[in-house]
Amino acid sequence: MSHSIKLWLVVLCLFLAHFIMHVGFGLGPVVPDMLTIALLLAAREIGIGWASGLGLAFGLLEDSLSVLAFGASSVAMTMTGALGATTRNLFVGDSLSFQLSYFILGKWARELLHWVMADEALRLPFLEQVMLNGLLGGVYVAAIAMPLMVLMGWRRREVR
Amino acid sequence: MAFRPEPEHAEGQRRQNLLAISFFILALVTAYIPADMQQSIAWSVRVTTLRPFILTQQWVVAAKENAAEAGILRAQLDSLTATVSSQAGLLDENRILRDLLDLAERGEGFFRPATVLRSGIPGSESMFFLELGSGDGIENGAPVVNRHGLVGRILEVRQESSIGMDWTHPDFRVSAMLQDGRTYGIVENRRGAFREEDRLVLNGTAYYETASDNTLVVTSGLGGVFPRGIPIGRIAGIEEVQGQWRKAYRLWPMVEPGSVTHVIVFTNRVPDNLDQLWSDDSLSTVEKETVERRKP
């Protein structure tokens, strides 16, 4: 199976798993933000334009379920996708520390952008959403994404 | 994973940048278009792409409910069957008398039961979905309650489903009074540093009126959104005092929205006064259950 097909299958599985866990089973923050993992994985592979488009599509889906802050997720995910794709020009390496930072900061940036875009009266306190949920969520995202990359053979291939 | 730099072809790079800018502008547009349009987009996505996931939650909630309460329901059914079979004659007599007096059935048609569905997505903490809509007689602003008291109200109604907000939403306001009607005020949500610190506050009460701890606060019916007599919470101390003219009281909420799975939504035929629906003895019973549940 080609690398690109494998990547899109993983993105599709993460997308399905995210909504089945969060919406279908109503597990909320117990499960990681797999939509952000999917976006960050894809953003390193596709161009900045398509990464932004994928982010917008994911963001719109999330916004449809959080009507009170409509648009916040769309903007946050679009920008996260664009930033993720931009790192391809800035960092070509594949070290463990880079990849850990990439996922942690990616999730943190997504929470920060969502916080900025959400209405002041509706958003969670900065300390809770950005500093706590953002950073802990980032670690959680990285803890899922890294084994996934090893499992898919993407890290091994780069090390060679 | 192939971490390649962006294609060096200038034309391809320019196209990608243009695409990114277009998508970003589109994202900004979705954030600032009128609320009606936002709701229409959200609605379309929910009934198409997200429909299977929302249906899954309905099935999961129903399955959990069936598994957890099968024994209790069987016991209640047995008791009810015994009661009904022994009171069949009484029911007939009651029906004939009510017909003679031309009385309507008690509580007929002014509420609908529903299962609460939550999306579990960031930004949707204070809202829920219900599989009830305008076809069931539900209107915008309809009160949502459970056996403990007030849960919230309906925000948006479609033909077959609706969206509601619970009292943890920062825009939540309800005109309220002490149960004995001595003091009136507005109950609102106060945000804490963390969501767990959110609390209900009875605000705008007169300085010289005193409400003792544990006094029940109910909806006053003023403003016409909520009927009178729905329990909201109990006084748990003074929250703040302004000069010598206003006091605000902290409340112990009757309902913990996070644990609510089933609710009742009042239809457009709800009477103005509901204080007979929540009698003191039944309230104290459910409060005992809540206290027991909070114990570690």
Please sum up the structure shown.
The complex is a heterodimer of chains A (160) and B (296). Chain A is mainly α.
Distance between the termini of chain B: 47 Å
The DSSP helix count of chain A reads 7
Structural class of chain B: alpha+beta
State which percent range the strand residues of chain B make up.
Answer: 25-35%
The major sheet of chain A is characterized as: none
CATH superfamily of the domain at 107-294 in chain B: Rod shape-determining protein MreC, domain 2
Number of helices of chain B: 5
Overall mean pLDDT score of chain A? 87
CATH hierarchy, class of the domain at 107-294 in chain B: Mainly Beta
Helix/strand-derived class of chain A? mainly alpha
Biggest sheet overview of chain B: 6 strands, antiparallel
Numbering strands along the chain, what is their spatial order in the largest sheet of chain B? 1-12-3-4-5-2
Model description:
The complex is a heterodimer of chains A (160) and B (296). Chain A is mostly helical. Chain A contains seven helices and no strands. Chain A has helices at 3-24, 34-43, 48-65, 72-90, 96-117, 126-151, 154-159. The model of chain A has no long low-confidence stretch (mean pLDDT 87). Chain B is of the alpha+beta class and 296 residues long. Chain B has a domain at 107-294: Beta Barrel (Thrombin, subunit H), CATH 2.40.10. Chain B has five helices and twelve strands. Chain B has helices spanning 10-32, 35-47, 51-86, 88-101, 280-294, and strands at 111-115, 127-130, 143-145, 150-157, 162-166, 173-178, 184-190, 199-206, 216-219, 231-242, 246-253, 262-266. In chain B, the strands form two sheets. Chain B has a six-stranded antiparallel sheet. Chain B has a six-stranded antiparallel barrel with strand order 6-7-8-11-10-9. In chain B, a hairpin with a 3-residue loop joins strand 10 (231-242) and strand 11 (246-253). Chain B starts with 9 loop residues before the first helix and ends with a helix. The mean pLDDT of chain B is 81. Chains A and B meet through helix 1, helix 3, helix 4, helix 5 and helix 6 of A and helix 1, helix 2 and helix 3 of B.
